[in-house]
Write a structure and sequence with these properties.
The protein has 18 helices and 33 strands. By secondary structure, it is α/β, with parallel strands linked by helices. The strands form nine sheets. It has a six-stranded mixed beta sheet with strand order 18-17-16-19-21-20, sandwiched between helices. The chain has a six-stranded mixed beta sheet with strand order 32-31-22-23-24-33, with helices on both faces. A hairpin with a 2-residue loop joins strand 28 (501-504) and strand 29. Helix 8 packs across helix 16 and helix 12 (527-551) crosses helix 17 (628-636). The chain is elongated. It starts with a strand and ends in a 23-residue tail after the last helix. Residues 25, 37-39, 41-48, 91-93 line the site of FE2/S2 (inorganic) cluster (FES).
Length: 676
């Protein structure tokens, strides 16, 4: 008589022989099949559900008899009666293998499943979270056995789930005894297994059925944005953001570094401010999602190097001067409470992605994780535009990264009528090449300024200024309409043929909107604005070009614009300005908040963490500050779109007027060396 049976698991295709009478859950473990279990096979969590298949399977050369599994037992009957078990489903911990069988593991029972989410960015989330719940029954204390409650809990987790060497923080230990007694020695333990010793991060009496939650946080210089994510399926339950409270110490990063240098205790003050911001965001997200903050067991953080150091309470002064040394570039595995994020599960962990280089942060690493240029044969240029542009160029052969000091012009700063992206800011601009008349859209209103109803629709917000994407479109449209020449000079009213070009000292400005008659602002694009944009875009292009030199190429296959700002830039306008190298316009895409997506991927998956840690070690870092060719590229990139590089793809869709308003030689400007 046969003592064992063949079992084939689908969809993995894993197969093997197991002894008759082996529970399906045990067989799955023996064969390395992904089958979930929270209660350790007690028949109470139902995470181990499987769908046995019966009949003939020619493909497998197998015929499965109706009695290939043991009959439904009392535990399953009870579960079905109380909670309901779908037709055809069995509990894997109860059903035993009695003959050759094919067993399907449905997606919701797989530990490392793929979940496609249609949230901000649609993508497949690999679920392999570091923190999981385990239900255990713990031996009660005994006068004759001196071990502590924690040791008996650890022994139960080792015996039932093979979790060896459990560690615990004092904060969790403080809750241990009342919880064990409240649960009558049955508890659900949240255990973090993200690297190093497994850690007990939270404990609940009895079987906890609600999911565990995590936070994915993108800590930017201006805003702190976060998602609250369900750790079982990667679902985003809440998304929110707030201004970085450090803004009061300086708008850009460099001014914050200067604040630290000039004010004793300044770094600690800024650390407190940002940690309070993180705690505030965590509370807001939990409120919005309607989940207890104490059910949040993990946070993943991404940020630029200066924010990274300030968040951790490390003086960022070394990042303000060559050679821009980081305190540590590796990923960090910390207690969330070390970052001042209070109120989470008592032992909640915080994982910070690795930094790529002194000016290329964990946010860029998150973009690299999310976009994965190393997985594609074609050459991808990824540009995350901020005060400091972070640039990645790569394909399956090689990936390079650098940062470039673009300054804050792309964010509307240093622009005469510039402002942050907020209701009332001009975000889209079009200029009629024949009449030179503009029309525009402001944030908060879908109508063009020339459409009926625009005035009424914008009455509440007003038209207050130009945001980053607005200034890019305005300058590009001025170039396309022949109001600005290739050197960046604005022509006079006579040269341009429009009274909207107004003299301003020895230069000209183009009037976009005049509301002075009704007490509103006068919004114009000045020569100084164009120079500021030229400096910023030259720095961006020069950084990208430097990476292309290093790669030995003159063109890229595709460009990905990352970051919240990247989502609003029009590819055509960006290319007219020469912000990015020429490539087919349809190959220029926006990745939305790729850093936030990368943070979510790392939150949902330990393998994603290990993958980006390894990838960051492989990425070659190019330091623009010491690279002499950067200066050459910068100067050549000053023209709109470029002094020497051909832009054939751009030329096929846009003809730029051949105008020249320069009578005395244009000032090319100097590259900014400052960072921030
Ligand atoms: S493992 Fe919990 S019900 Fe089967």
């Amino acid at each position: 008589m046969t003592q064992d049976a063949l079992v084939i698991f689908t969809p993995s295709g894993k197969r093997g022989r197991v002894a008759l009478g082996t529970p399906v859950l045990t067989a799955a473990r023996q064969l390395g099949v992904d089958l979930d279990s929270v209660c350790g096979g007690r028949g109470i969590c139902s995470k181990c559900q499987v769908a046995p298949q019966f009949g003939d399977f020619a493909k497998h050369g197998l015929s499965v008899a109706p009695d290939a599994l043991s009959p439904v037992n009392a535990v399953e009957e009870r579960y079905d009666r109380i909670r309901g078990l779908a037709a055809g489903r069995r509990l894997g911990c109860q059903a035993c293998i009695m003959g050759d069988v094919v067993i399907d593991v449905p997606a919701e029972s797989q530990l490392h499943r793929q979940v496609i989410r249609k949230s901000a960015t649609e993508r497949v989330m690999e679920m392999d979270p570091a923190t999981r719940a385990f239900y255990v029954e713990v031996a009660q204390p005994d006068m004759h056995a001196p071990e502590g409650d924690f040791q008996r809990l650890a022994a139960a987790l080792e015996f039932q789930f093979q979790i060896k060497g459990l560690a615990v923080d004092l904060e969790v230990m403080r809750h241990l005894q009342p919880t064990l007694r409240k649960g009558d020695w049955a508890v659900t333990a949240a255990v973090y297994q993200g690297g190093g010793a497994p850690r007990l991060v939270g404990l609940w009496p009895g079987l906890r059925e609600a999911p565990l939650y995590g936070l994915a946080i993108d800590l930017g210089s201006t805003t702190i944005a976060g998602h609250l994510v369900e750790l079982t399926d990667g679902r985003v339950l809440a998304s929110s953001g707030l201004m970085n409270p450090q803004i009061r110490f300086g708008e850009d990063l460099m001014s914050r570094v200067s604040y630290v240098m000039m004010n004793p205790g300044g770094a600690a003050e800024m650390t407190r401010a940002v940690q309070q911001g993180l705690a505030q965001l965590a509370t807001a997200l939990a409120d919005e999602a309607g989940v207890p903050l104490a059910d949040v067991v993990e946070a993943v953080l991404v940020c630029n190097p200066v924010m990274h150091h300030l968040m951790l309470g490390i003086d960022p002064v070394e990042l303000g001067q060559a050679p821009f040394a980081l305190a540590s570039s590796d990923s960090l595995d910390l207690r969330a409470s070390d970052l001042g994020i209070a109120g989470l599960a008592p032992g909640a962990r915080a994982y910070v992605l690795p930094l790529i280089a002194g000016h290329v942060g964990a946010d860029a690493a998150a973009v690299a994780l999310s976009e994965a240029p190393e997985m594609r044969p074609d050459l991808t240029l990824i540009v995350d535009v901020g005060t400091n542009a972070e640039i990645i160029l790569g394909n399956s052969n090689r990936v390079l990264a650098c940062s470039s000091p673009t300054g804050p012009a792309f964010e509307g700063a240093q622009i005469s009528a510039g402002q942050r992206a907020a209701p009332g800011a001009i975000e889209r601009v079009e200029i009629d090449p024949a009449t030179k008349e503009p029309r525009f859209k402001v944030i908060g209103c879908d109508l063009w300024s020339t459409e009926p109803g625009f005035a009424a629709a914008t009455a509440a917000t007003g038209i207050t200024g130009i945001c980053g994407s607005g200034i890019i479109e305005a300058v590009a449209e001025m170039r396309m309409a022949g109001i600005v020449d290739a050197s960046g000079l604005i022509g006079s009213a006579e040269q341009v043929g429009s009274s909207r070009s107004e003299p301003q000292g020895r230069t000209h400005a183009y009037l976009l909107h005049d509301a002075t008659a009704t007490g509103g602002p006068r919004i114009a694009v000045t020569q100084g604005d164009i120079r500021a944009i030229q400096l910023a875009k030259s720095a961006l292009y020069a950084g990208a070009r430097l990476l292309m030199d290093e790669m030995g190429v003159d063109a890229v296959d595709r460009v990905v614009l990352a970051g919240a700002f990247g989502a609003h830039i029009s590819p055509k306008h960006a290319m007219v300005l020469g912000m990015i190298p020429d490539c087919p316009l349809e190959h220029v895409t926006s990745a939305g908040n790729a850093a936030g997506t990368g943070a979510r991927m790392a939150l949902c998956s330990v393998s994603a963490r290990r993958a980006i840690e390894a990838q960051v070690r492989r990425i070659a870092k190019i330091e623009t500050a010491i690279e002499p060719r950067f200066q050459e590229h910068f100067v050549a990139a000053n023209a709109l779109p470029h002094a020497t590089a051909p832009f054939p793809h751009l030329a096929s869709v846009v003809t730029l007027p051949d105008v020249a308003f320069n009578t005395g030689g244009g000032d090319g400007g100097r590259p900014r060396r400052r960072r921030g």
